[in-house]
Amino acid sequence: MSMHFDALAARAVADGAISAEEILSLRREGWSNGSIEPDEAEAIFLANDAIRDATPEWADFFVEALVDYALSNGSPRGYVSQTMADTLVARISRDGQVDSMAELELIVRLLEKAVDVPTSLKDFALRQIESTVLTGTGPTRRGALTDDGINAVEAGLLRRMIFAAGGDRPAAVSRAAAAMLFRLKHATLGRSNAPEWKSLFVQGVANFLLASAHDQISSDRAAQLGDDQPRPVPVR
């Protein structure tokens, strides 16, 4: 980590704020050697903890830098290791709950960008968004916090999570995700749900059922093909 990067991050911690110009400088310094280093990632986390009113510029930098850090340190590159997953979860959920939109976006983006991530991280992401929807509190809400249904932001995050490349079932909805959709449906009946949520529920469940049916057909066909193979004639 360069002295300039360290000084900028330390100033953000001290001031509780960071300007657009400082964020641009962090971008230049952070990627000067091609990727975000571990000490730079730690400095970014500390700055994020200290910044009182995160701007969209800061949130974008936070997510991009830490996704790069997580994927660059995987073996092979593009995979999130169990150690990295445990570190990220511990770092952004001291009380078991993600506290900012940027932190939740970090997890969602990792699910989208990674080739694969540990099951513990997938489960953590689903728990966070489900908790936010059911309690009416959490990082995805805008303005007053209520428990009046699923808003468009939450529906968008849910869609990205359940169809993410690094999710439980890439490009298809997993059993765990489908079960979550049903729990959310029952919990929000009669509430002011966004149209995006209604569309997602129908599409998500249909995707799960079609994929499951295909898996079953494939299994049955495999068994049939096995029965079609010539069998050895017993020697008498």
Fill in the keyword field for this structure.
single chain; 236 residues; mainly alpha; 10 helices
Tally of helical runs: 10
Provide the low-confidence segments as ranges: 228-236
Level of helix content?
55-70%
Order of helices and strands: HHHHHHHHHH
Name the overall outline: globular
> What is the rounded distance between the termini?
77 Å
Q: Round the mean pLDDT to the nearest integer and report it.
A: 81
Q: What structural category do the secondary elements indicate?
A: mainly alpha
The counted number of beta strands is 0
Query: Taking Cα atoms only, what radius of gyration do you get, to the nearest Å?
Result: 22 Å
Proportion of beta-strand residues:
under 5%
